């Protein structure tokens, strides 16, 4: 019997398969398609997604093939431009989704895995502590199931899990082309014009992603693309070697349950929202990051099964946050001429106060995601429980997922070293004149606990088993 069966060999399913195989856990990866998909929607990988790629061993290759994003540039009417430097903490990567998928598939193969293509799942049911999946003409028995089979998830439907929500108004045109003109490389350009919005993102290899909202009856032709660029984009931009022009619509939905018994939903099978800000693939990969260390810990006996109960709560909170953010951003992008003038005035105020850089950009980058409400003001110089680890903490060592105990300053270093040795935890130290205390970081990069006293440090032991 297989420990874990994963349905869906897209980037989320592959990332989950790699993360589990790295822990020595057997995986069967099934997909109904005949082979890898060739289309690409997601191109922007924010730092939390890059952390997942690093954890499964493909970040270096991704950076070689992708283009680092140094800034987000907002082009307003009248030639006004707002430029938000991302900095090292929020630096993103432009990499077409098919490349991300290929890198993960190669890694899965190197870990001894094999994708079972043309394998349609038609039944899923649980018999005591076994998940039974009818795949093609065979029955697959597994201890656990992960559904990563997309927004039209067959597994979700077979489990009877509802997918409440509604369609997002409008459609989005998307294409790629070679362009000629004065457009900064290494930045994503948002054109916010009275005629409409447009996103232009130069990528590695001379290709540029062009996308924007269009009316339902808009013809998907090269002439339409050139007209959109002329009306909404920069002056004098030439387009050549235009690729296929397609369009898509989106929905705002979150599954009524992200887990049911021994079955879990990740990625688009669990939630979907508008594409504004490039959040979709990033959110799905973070589902995987949250689930893989918990499920792997339970399977290998390092963690108690109760830890899996937190998956639905935590990832539902994250999905709801992203859905709300993308909904608000979409409204800004779809404003008419009068509303656009008000929006542009507000954005200029965000830039002048520094909020564009210190608040909005980290929001897009996923730095403001949290699993708990409120903060502990006693430790306000340390990251709060349930928040994402800040960029000034050191990267985790490569290897099996584990909690990390980090001391900030020197006061608690020796007690932390003793605790780390007793609990077999990696221990790292950060020198700081401004902060002192300890931070316990979960394997998925969220803060499990922080504190400043010896008694608070002693409470760490109960969280790591």
Give a verbal description of the structure.
The protein has 465 residues and is α+β, with helices and mostly antiparallel strands. The strands form five sheets. Strands 1, 2, 8, 9, 10, 11, 20 and 21 form an eight-stranded mixed β-sheet that branches. Strands 5, 6, 13, 14, 15, 16, 17 and 18 form an eight-stranded mixed β-sheet that branches. The protein has a four-stranded mixed β-sheet with strand order 24-23-25-26. The chain is globular. The chain has helices at residues 11-21, 47-56, 59-65, 87-90, 97-110, 154-159, 222-232, 280-300, 310-333, 337-353, 355-365, 413-423, 454-458, and strands spanning 2-7, 27-30, 44-45, 67-69, 71-75, 81-85, 92-94, 115-116, 121-127, 130-135, 138-147, 165-167, 171-180, 187-193, 196-202, 208-214, 238-240, 246-248, 251-254, 259-260, 263-265, 271-272, 404-408, 427-430, 437-441, 447-451. Helix 1 (11-21) runs parallel beside helix 8 (280-300) and helix 8 (280-300) packs antiparallel against helix 9 (310-333). Strand 9 (121-127) and strand 10 (130-135) form a beta hairpin.
Q: Any chance you could write out the topology, listing elements then pairs?
A:
Elements: E1 2-7, H1 11-21, E2 27-30, E3 44-45, H2 47-56, H3 59-65, E4 67-69, E5 71-75, E6 81-85, H4 87-90, E7 92-94, H5 97-110, E8 115-116, E9 121-127, E10 130-135, E11 138-147, H6 154-159, E12 165-167, E13 171-180, E14 187-193, E15 196-202, E16 208-214, H7 222-232, E17 238-240, E18 246-248, E19 251-254, E20 259-260, E21 263-265, E22 271-272, H8 280-300, H9 310-333, H10 337-353, H11 355-365, E23 404-408, H12 413-423, E24 427-430, E25 437-441, E26 447-451, H13 454-458
Parallel strand pairs: 1-2, 1-11, 2-8, 5-14, 11-21, 23-24
Antiparallel strand pairs: 3-7, 4-7, 5-6, 9-10, 10-11, 12-19, 13-16, 13-17, 13-18, 14-15, 15-16, 19-22, 20-21, 23-25, 25-26
Helix pairs in contact: 1-5, 1-8, 8-9
